[in-house]
Structure formats: structure tokens, C-alpha cells
Amino acid sequence: MRKFKQVVLISLAAVTFFSCKEEQEPDCQTEPAKLRVTVQPVFGSETLYLDSVYSTVEGYDVKFTDLKFYMENPRNGSAVLIDAGLFDYRERGTLLMEGEGSYLDYSSMNANLGVHSSINHNDPAAFDNASMLNIANSNDMHWGWNPGYIFVKVEAKVDTIADANPLFDHNVVFHIGKDENFQTLTFSDVNWSDQGSHHELPLKLDMETFLQNGAETIDLKNEYTSHTAAGQEVLSMKVMVNFKAALTPY
Amino acid sequence: MRYLFLFVGITVIFMACKKDKTIYVQTPYELKIPSHFPDMIIPIDNPMTVEGVELGRKLFYEKKLSGDNTQACATCHAPSAGFSDPEQFSTGIDGLQGDRNSMALINLGWNTSFFWDGRSKTLEEQIIQPVINPIEMHEEWKNVVGKLSADIEYKNMFFKAFNTDEIDSLQAAKAIAQFLRTLISGESKFDVMYKFENNLSLSANDQVIYQTITPSEWAGYDLFKSLNGADCFHCHNGPLMQVQKFSNNGLDAAFTDIGRGDVTGDPNDYGKFKVPTLRNIAYTAPYMHDGRFSTIDEVIEHYSSGIQQSSTIDPLIEYAFQGGVQLDAFEKDLLKQFLMTLSDENFVNNPDFQEP
Fold it and tell me: Domain range spanning residue A154?
């Protein structure tokens, strides 16, 4: 009887200690692999910072004030990283997009510079909350009526007069969108780097190449504004072609 | 002795898992988000509840939040004025005035920064500040908590909203933030125009409103978004009628208030201020960060001919070199007629937003 009571007491004590213990999930889940695509703006051999001064071949001084673009449907075969990435150098730094998957699935990558016409005119409020196409995230990269998204946005202030007076009173505004300016990107043999917590694909956006793409130059003194409006078709297309040429694996 | 052990053991079992107190289960609050708006992202640590919104509404109109119990949030954010202040500068409890106009509280749940200089990143953070500002409500939160804690109605309301017997400033801010997130304006004539232009479905009521839109209002809208017209759309865009950014809109050639620059310390941000929504602009006079313009006509004149050049002026003000977009009298009138379509009477008169 005495032994029985001891057993009961020990059992009670054991129940007391274990009865309220939270059940823990077995730690057997593997974190999905994270993939990041980053873009480092440069001006030739220099790292580009917004609001800093760079010199063009024409002798102008230029301060870029805004660099944004959409890269939609980044994919390799049937593997799709995310629906769209939005590069916003001022607000989001060098991050273009972050997704889940194995970097081995993306030994090369195709993507769209801009937003494909099949979704460009959809209700921007109807995209998933996490999507950069949702108007809460696209912010000023969507025209508030039917034309859809701005694909590429470059804004700058330029001093076009070579003197000792730094007067950046010449504004540059390129807001390029509309289906006819949509471009495709192909990155072959991309190199993902292991960053420990994720794998990263670094891209480079060379704004010197953007201005001097072979014979396709953009002279900021004379070619300084396009909102993809009527009469601006040639410059709009040149901006897109040059921007595409400027965006390469780092 | 053995029975004593048994008794203690059994008692321990019963006590070990006993809950400390009663838990009040809050009722989820369902926001009335217009169909053409994106979802509102609610902070995980401050979910919307019926009890929280009710408490926040009461606190918004509560004068005990001020040092001498004479001013509430609503004193400078009146519903009839689109939750702004008709005065250029609000006067605090000590008779002092600031140097910025009280901002309209409209669709704040979609905003990413608060105050004209964006110094607060969240609504909850923003709400804390006017109470302790010496030129506004000039009170200490510990005193506010004391006053609220002495009120049995508030004790009950805080308990229902947050399951707490101890009131604190963070809970008060959370409750007010919940109420502010309900201040959604999306039922103006402009909303029907926006839906129509974006091929979104119009409800039966929208169809009725659509029939009332005049050719002049449509023409004013065209001017609003025309590069060679009023060119307003770069900053006032989408269903919110604003983009989330800071801009120098050419008010001054030299700055007496450096705005965003005060927060970042970056000279490139001098003279920049948060872009406000144009929704309910007819109710929210005066205009600009310093309330310098009393009427919409003055605002239109500024963008037409009053732009001042400076080193940080927004490059999107493309006609700054000629002082503005140079509208004629007819165009100004059309533009004003469009701006009137942004009025949402259901918003300013919504009984759910008035003093309880």
C-alpha cells in the first residue's frame, strides 16, 4: 500500500510538470531556399549613387534622382521565380526581387523588361498583396488609367553648361511604358553566389551604357523627356533599348 | 502526513493549468474597402477589432488627451473639414501655433509615412506625438493614462479591446490607429470616373452617378492627366489620388522650412514634403504644408504661373522654367470642376466617423 501511494505521488508530480507543456512541432521542416536578384547601378567603372554627380561624354554633369523598372516573369523553362520584381533604387536599394526555389533551376534566365500586355491593363488593385504589380506596391509606377504600368523610370538633373557654376536646372524625365515598348531579357549562364542564407544573382545597370549604347546615344541636352506620349515614340523606344543593353549580369 | 502529500499533489494539478483571468474574445472588424482599392495591410500586432475601433473613435474625440482637457485629436482634424483644420495653423492648448497645416486624415491605412515630413513610419507611432507636443496637446502620456484609468468606462473598453486591466499609451495609440484605418473615402464621382477609365465594373449606383458626370468634368480630368495640360497626375495618381513620395512642388526659391530634409539631414531633401491626397480637396482648405493657399483657385494659380525654381524642385514639374503650366481661365475652370468630383459626402458625413 505504501509503495502504491508513492507511485501515485510520483505520478501526480510527473503529470504536474508535463501537463501544461506546449507540444512542439518536430523540427524536421527544411527552410525553402531563398533566391535574390540584385541590381547595382554603376556609371562606367564607378558605383552610381543617386544625387551624386557623373560626367557624360558630351561634358554634361548629371545627377540621377530616380531609377526604377519592372522585371516581370523571370523564368527558366517552366520554373518561374516570382510574378514581377520592382527595382526602386531610392526606396529599396539594390534588391530587385526575392523568391523561393533552387538556384540550380535558373542556370539561365529569361524575363520581361516591363509588363506583358496580357496583364498590363488588369485592375492594379486585384493583384496579390505581395505582388509588386499591386498598386499599393507599384505606387507611382502605374498610370492611374488604362495605359498600365511604367516599365522604366529614369529621372535626373543635368548641368549642361561646362563652367564652374554647378547649376542643375535641366530636368530629365523618362517614363516609358505602353505595350509597344515592351522588351524581353535573356541572361545566359548566370552565376548565383552563395550568401549563406540565400543565393544571389547580381546584375549591373550601367547608366553610362544607357546614355552611350554604341551608335544609340541619348544626348541629355536635347533628348530629356518622354512620357511615352504621341510624338515621343522614337525616344521612348531608344530609352528601352538602351536600358536593356545597360542591364547585364555583374 | 501521507494524505497531506496526496492533497498537495492534487491541488498542484488543479492549480497548474488554471488560467489567470477571464479572456475577452474580440470581434474582428471588417473594413469596407472599395472594390477598386488594394487590400489594406494591417499590422500583425494591431488587428482590427470592433472593440478596438470603438475605443479608438472615443479616444479620437477625447479631450482628456490634452494637458488642460480642452482639446482632442478631432479639434484639429474635424470631420466636416475632411478631418483637417480650416485654420492655416492649429492653435494648441497654450495658445501656441506651429508652422504646418493640419493634415487631412483620409485613407491613411494605405500610407507609408506620416506627418508632412514623414518622420513617422506607422500610424501607431504617429499618434503618440501630438499628445506630448508642447505646442499641441502638451500633455504627458502618463497623465493621460491616469485620467483614462480613473474612468470606469475606459477601463472596460480597454479590457474589451486589449484584454488588459492596465491602460498604456501604446494601447491607446493602437486603438486610435484602428479607428483611423476605418476612415476610407472611395465613393466620390471621381471613383466612378476612375473605374470607367480602367474598365472596372460599375455598380447600379455607379451607373447613376456616371450619368451625372458633365463634359466639363471629363475635360477637367483630361487636363489633370495631360502632360501639356495641368500635368497633376505624376503626384496625384491612382485610386488614392496620391503617390507615396516626398516632393518639392516649387513653392519657394529659398526654404524657411526644409521639410523632409529635417528628417534625413540630406540637402537633396530640403524643401520636400509628403505628397497629400487630393480626395475631398473641397473640404480640406487651406492648402500646402504651411496652409498658404486659402482656395483651390490659388492652388491652381500656383501650378499655372507661380512655380519657384530651386535646387531640389521635383523634375516632374516640367514647366518650372516658365513658372508653371500656363493654363488659361477656361482651363483653370475645367480643372477646378474636376477637382470638385473628388468630394465624397458619404465620407465626411459618415455617422460611424462622428463623435460617439
Answer: 31-249
| Nearest-by-CA chain B residue for A132 | B38
Low-confidence ranges of chain A (pLDDT < 70): 1-31
Contact B120, B113 (CB under 8 A): yes
User: Which residue in the block uniquely carries the three cell numbers 508530480?
Assistant: A13
Q: Is residue B321 part of a domain?
A: yes
**Scanning the structure block, which residue is given the C-alpha cell 501526480?**
A12
pLDDT digits (tens, 9 = 90+) for B104-121: 999 999 999 999 999 999
Domain-located, residue A3: no
Q: Is residue B38 part of a domain?
A: no
Q: Same structural domain for residues B70 and B96?
A: yes
pLDDT tens, residue by residue, B240-282: 999 999 999 999 999 999 999 999 999 999 999 999 999 999 9
User: What residues of chain B have any CB closer than 8 angstroms to a CB in chain A?
Assistant: 2, 5-6, 9-10, 12-13, 16-17, 35-39, 41, 110, 194, 197-200, 225, 227, 233-235, 237-239, 243-245, 266, 268, 309, 311, 315-316, 318, 320-321
Q: What is the dihedral of CA A208, A44, B317, B221, to 10 degrees?
A: 60
ipTM value for the complex: 0.85
Q: Among the three residues B184, B200, B235, which one is the final residue of a domain in this structure?
A: B184
pLDDT at B213: 98
Is residue A218 one of the residues assigned to a domain?
yes
Which domain covers residue B173, as residue numbers? 50-184
CA triplet B183, B82, B173: central angle to 5 degrees? 45
State how many domains chain B has.
2
Distance separating alpha carbons of residues A212 and B188, to the nearest angstrom: 48
Is residue B56 located within the same domain as residue B168?
Answer: yes
B196 and B333 both lie in a single domain = yes
DSSP per-residue codes, B154-184: HHHHHHHHHS-SS--HHHHHHHHHHHHHT--
Residue B148 belongs to domain with CATH number: 1.10.760.10
* Best A20, A128, A173 residue to mutate vs chain B (most B CBs within 10 Å): A173
Look at residue B19 in the predicted model and tell me its pLDDT. 52
Task: Name the stretches of chain B with pLDDT < 70.
Answer: 1-21
Interface-testing mutation among A5, A15, A139, with chain B (most B C-beta atoms within 10 A): A139
Question: How does pLDDT run across A151-179, given as a tens digit for each residue?
Answer: 999 999 999 988 878 888 889 999 999 99
Q: What is the tally of structural domains in chain A?
A: 1
